[in-house]
Design brief:
2 copies of one chain form a homodimer. With 126 residues, chain A is mainly α. Chain A folds into 2 domains: 73 residues, Arc Repressor Mutant, subunit A; 36 residues, no CATH class. Chain A has 7 helices and 3 strands. In chain A, strands 1-3-2 form a 3-stranded antiparallel beta sheet. At the A-B interface, helix 1, helix 2, helix 3, helix 5 and helix 6 of A face helix 1, helix 2, helix 3, helix 5 and helix 6 of B. Chain A binds a DNA duplex (30 and 30 nucleotides) through helix 4.
Chain lengths: 126, 126
DNA sequence: CCTCCCTATAAGCATCTGCTTATATAATAA
DNA sequence: TTATTATATAAGCAGATGCTTATAGGGAGG
C-alpha cells in the first residue's frame, strides 16, 4: 500500500505528469526537459527525484549528463497491481487485518440497524 | 490532465486509499466506515469529500445517513484512460501544444549535441 | 416541541509541498 | 589550471494538506 501511495502522490502533480508524459515519447536529458518544458532546472531536478523515488523513473549517467527514462512498464504493471489490490479479498491484505475483522463483525450484526449500536458491539471486541 | 491530477492526488493518501479499499468490498455508511477504520468522523467525512470531488466516489442520501460507493468502474476506466494518455501522440494532446513544438524542434537539431546550444536554438522560436 | 443520531463544516494548528535563488559537485574544454 | 556545462542540493518562503476540536444542521423519535 505504501508503494501505491508513493506512486499516486508522485503522479498527483501537474509538472510531474508533464515530465512523465514527455519521457513517454522518449528518454531525455535533464537539459532537454528544461528546454521543452521551459521551466527552471532545479524545479525539474526536484520533480525527477520524486518520480525516481517512486520507482517510476530510472536514470543513466552519461558524463556530465543524466539520462532519464520511464522504468520499464512500471505504469502498466503498477496500475494493474492496484486494480488487483482493489479486487482481492480484504482478508488477504496484511494492511487490513484489523479492518477485516471489524468489518466481518459489522456484517454479522447486520440485524442491528443503528450505527451507534454497531459501534458499541464493535467496542466489545476492541 | 487536470482530472488525472485530481484523481491521483486523491489516491495518494493512505487514509483515502483505505477508505477506497473498504468501499471496494461494498458500499457503506459513514458511521460504518468510522467503526471499521476506528478513526474520527470528521476525518472520514473530509476524505470522502476529496474522493467524491475526484469523481471516485458517489453518495446516496438515506434519511440521516449517507451511503458512499465507488463511482461505477471509475478506477478501471480512468487508469485505462491514463495509460492511453501516455501512449497517444504528443501532438494530439492540447495540454502539450507548446511542448510538442519545442520537442520537434529539439529533435530536428539533434546534430547539435550541447543542451546549451539546443536551448539557444529553441529561444529563437520563443 | 425537545432530544438524539448522523453527517458536514469551520477554525486552528503543525506539517508537508513546490517554487525560487543560491550554491555545490562533477565532468569537460580551453 | 581556469572556465564552462550539466545536474544536484540547500535554504527560505508561501501556500496546501491533514488532523483535532468544536459546532451546525437535518432527520427520527419521544
Amino acid at each position: 500500500m505504501d508503494l501505491f501511495v508513493k506512486i499516486f502522490k508522485a503522479l498527483g502533480e501537474p509538472t510531474r505528469l508533464k515530465i512523465l508524459r514527455l519521457l513517454a515519447v522518449r528518454p531525455m536529458y535533464v537539459c532537454e526537459l528544461e528546454s521543452v518544458l521551459g521551466i527552471s532546472q532545479p524545479r525539474i531536478s526536484q520533480h525527477l527525484r520524486v518520480l525516481k523515488e517512486a520507482t517510476i523513473l530510472r536514470e543513466t549517467k552519461e558524463a556530465q549528463k543524466t539520462f532519464y527514462m520511464i522504468n520499464g512498464d512500471i505504469m502498466e504493471t503498477s496500475l494493474g497491481d492496484f486494480l488487483e489490490f482493489l479486487r482481492v479479498d480484504l482478508r488477504d491484505l496484511p494492511d487490513f487485518k484489523e479492518e477485516s475483522l471489524r468489518m466481518e463483525k459489522l456484517d454479522q450484526d447486520s440485524c442491528v440497524i443503528s450505527c451507534k449500536t454497531g459501534q458499541g458491539s464493535d467496542l466489545q471486541n476492541a
